[in-house]
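CORE FACILITY INTAKE
Project code: CF-77B
Contact: R.S. (postdoc)
Sample description: multi-component assembly, two entities in total
Requested service: structural model of the whole complex
Turnaround: standard
Below are the sequence entries exactly as provided by the requester. Do not edit them.
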Amino acid sequence: MSIQTGAAWVDFASSRLARYKLFNGINWGRLAVISVPTLWLGIFFFVPFLVVFKISLSESAIAIPPYTSLLDWDLEEAYINIKLNLGNYLYLFEDTFYLDAYLSSVKIATISTFFTLLIGFPIAYLIARSKPSTRTLLLSLVILPFWTSFLLRVYAWMGLLKKNGIVNEFLLNIGIIEQPLTMLQTDFAVYVGIVYTYLPFMILPLYTALEKMDMTLLEAAEDLGARPSISFFLITVPMAIPGIIAGCLLVFIPAVGEFVIPALLGGSDTLMIGRVLWDEFFLNRDWPMASTVAIVMLVVLVLPIMLIRNSQGKEERV
Amino acid sequence: MQRQSLFLKMTATLGFIFLYAPLIALIVYSFNKSKLVTVWGGWSLKWYGELFRNEQIIDAALLSLKIAFISASLAVVLGTIAGLVLSRFGRFRGKLILSGWITAPLVMPEVITGLSLLLLFVAMEGAFGWPAGRGIGTIIIAHTTFCMAYVAVVVQSRLSQLDDTLEEAAMDLGAKPASLFFLVTLPLIKPALISGWLLSFTLSLDDLVIASFVSGPGNTTLPMLIFSKVRLGVSPEVNALATIMIAVVALGVVAAILQMRRQTRLTMVANQT
């Protein structure tokens, strides 16, 4: 009822607008509809990066906000002084700490993505090959952990991996180890955490790709005498490539910038760039340096991946 | 063939165990009497009692629910408009920019999104005096921005699956754009709006990093509180909280499956008659 009256009102308003000859030629309603999301994203998504870039060129200062202004002017003396500080960028390359953090983030994200694929593939394959009724159930079982809090799932691993945690107790009891292993606050825990929390992001695109696969191809291969392992690598894997790429990107990109997992599961020596940015901002309160770290991360890590993803999307559409 | 499928079943089962073991451990230990997570002190509902007496947690949970509700609703409105514009408006100037901006928040690392929004808010406050300080309002803006991207993608994919003959028929019968949208398109994409809203709601409820950047003093959301508690040491009432959240989600998923089953059965019956 209210939708109908709302629609009637909009119709009325647009018919009133249409009466003004001035607006002929331009579809104002259409323009208004387009500009709402565009303006919102422009202001709250695009402009922020310009601000970050601007602040990365300023100097840290003890002030509120804690950075220097780039412009310095005096109208009476008629001068404008623009001061760009490239020191932050130079410092980023001078101090190997940041470079190490970028490289180590890429390493951790790459290895985790590989293991996510390794664990996710059999699950996706099994779901795609099961009966439609079991398929819904198994898919929901994959999605269920994804809907529960990310933070709490990471927290659950703290209880499992602790020195006197459940995994150690179990391994001690069945006699595989004699001393409890140090797992929490190591890189190993970070890998487990990333693989665990991002597994659904790998399984779902893999499932979509495998489900679309034409099963008669496998039958044909079998008839021609191919062993299952051969037809798996020569038919199934190539057919799943779009899903593999999509899944790997969905895991790799957030893993590179991860903060929560290394902060809770990693040790003090686990270097990840998301955590470095966080500490630079909240602990050192160096806003310009945090901005510089963000800009370099954006240009070096995120932008290339987005471009690859875009070009692939276009190919798929063609 | 038989051997391969046994191997497949075993590895997939191990995968499912990997997915569920931590959740089950959380649930079991939420009923543990002992304060030490690993020492089993017998069954007890003690930590649930502690949880409901902890006003800090209740306040944070209410704040998070409020933010999630408002952000999800705003995100559905903005995301639906964006999805509609991208899939039904044909070519227009700036389409490439909008479609780029819509998918970008999905792949942007959270630390960058959070930092950049905070710096924007600070710069805006310096320039126009708005927003004065940070709090619920800035968190809602931030959450709406990244959630609308998810809604737009969901709506766009639903619209691309949808046959546009119904919309064309309505237009041929003389429907104006607005009534076409409210009376034809909107009911058709309702499932996408519901799943987009639910997705946005959980994403907002779950967000720690962005909220930490853009919240002001005194506005602690539930993830921020959990994070600080967990970092300081083990707090068993978090187990109880996690169990309640898992239970709510599980009920929701079960309800969704039952609903889907009923719908497929109904369509099957309808097709037969």
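Facility notes:
- Residues 60 and 195 of chain B are 25 Å apart (CA to CA).
- Chain B touches chain A through 90 residues (CB under 8 Å).
Invoice: internal transfer
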